[in-house]
Model the fold of this input.
Amino acid sequence: MQWRRLARLHKETLHSREWKLAEIGAELKRIRECAGLPQSVVQEAEASVRKHLNAVKGFRLEAVAVAALWTAAKAAGAPRPLEDFLACSKADKGRVRKAAWRLMEAARLVRRLAAEDYVKTVAARAGLPASTAKAAVELLKRNRRLLPGKNPWVWAAALWLASFRRPGLLTRLAEAAGSTPFGVKDAAKKMRI
Done:
């Protein structure tokens, strides 16, 4: 009886976020055993939920657990039908799909590096100084509409324009970005200086 009182006290004193994570963790383990998933998938799902709990705020804990396992199984290269997970849970299929979409979207946004990191990488490959990379980042900030795809020729074009179109640099930048000189020139035409 003593341990039950201590367990209840511990549960009541946990912060709301930690309590949710603990409940989702327990649900993940329960579904793992029922669906026969490897432990690595559960660990990936727990990490995903821990990172992106705010993205799935408002969803039932069961739906979040199933969504996290479903997306983690896909990411691990062992995709399973959603029905396999739903057979082990009381979660609603529509809510699970929405929660999975939010988790994947949050993960996709986190994985993106800043434009500054991409530009620095291309500048280093082409052997350009840090001041040119900084000027290229400023140029890209003024041209936000070109960034959503984060194509390598856009970074190379920004570096080319920031270096005042030095002769011979276009080919070097295109090679460093894994692009063609024509793609870099075309991207440079679209930029506002």
Observations:
- The two ends are 73 Å apart (CA to CA).
- The domain at 115-190 is CATH 1.10.472.10 (Cyclin A; domain 1).
- The chain has a mean pLDDT of 82.
